[in-house]
Design goal:
Elements: H1 11-33, H2 40-47, H3 51-57, H4 61-83, H5 90-103, H6 105-117, H7 121-146, H8 148-151, H9 156-172, H10 186-198
């Protein structure tokens, strides 16, 4: 009996596979090496493709980095969408999910890009073009974690912004204190969020 022959990939499938390899390699390099050392040369070597193949899809380094942000978001969304359906207190779940997002490898890579954008005009322009859409999608994604009842509360938007900003800052300090003792008091954050969300009117 002859073995089954796997169907050949189409050109579109091969292209998508190559892009995913490039973007996975970019995220890995951002985490391990930082933005300044994540050159297109390093990325194509890590991805195991030719430099020509990388430049075909991403002729500009800034566009490669911006595409990596989109790629990271898709990966985070897949993980967070699973969390949104779990049991337990939704505020506690959302706080822990936010913190794990900011401190994951994907969060570290995103922080590298945000910091670098301050002094890299091309990167800043590329990220700004995606900012509004990504913020909208992140807001919707975590809205599913908190649940519709909490999202409808008067101070939900304020609560979410405060949590995200506080966690982003706390996560950034882990560059100096990467050990477990740098973990913030997530229970206290959840308590604050719960109190804000309990406010009935502005």
């Amino acid at each position: 009996m002859s073995g089954l022959v796997a169907p050949r990939q189409t050109q579109a499938e091969r292209s998508e596979s190559t892009i995913n390899r490039i973007l996975d390699a970019t995220v890995e390099c951002l985490v391990e090496l930082g933005y300044s050392r994540t050159s297109t040369l390093v990325v194509h070597e890590r991805a195991g493709i030719s430099r020509g193949a990388l430049l075909h899809h991403f002729p500009l380094r800034a566009e490669l980095m911006a595409a990596a942000v989109d790629h990271m978001f898709e990966q985070m969304q897949a993980t967070i969408d699973v969390t949104s359906g779990s049991q337990g207190d939704p505020v506690d779940r959302a706080v822990r999910t936010l913190w794990s997002t900011f401190t994951s490898n994907l969060g570290v890579a995103a922080q590298e890009l945000l910091t670098a954008a301050r002094t890299d005009p091309e990167l800043r322009t590329a990220l700004v073009r995606r900012e509004a859409d990504l913020n909208r999608r992140i807001h919707a994604m975590f809205g599913r974690v908190f649940g519709p009842e909490l999202v409808s509360r008067p101070l939900y938007d304020t609560t979410f912004r405060l949590l995200a900003q506080a966690m982003r800052g706390a996560a950034a300090t882990r560059a100096l204190h990467p050990d477990a003792s740098a973990r913030p008091d997530l229970i206290r954050w959840a308590e604050v969020a719960t109190r804000l969300l309990a406010v009935e009117s502005l």
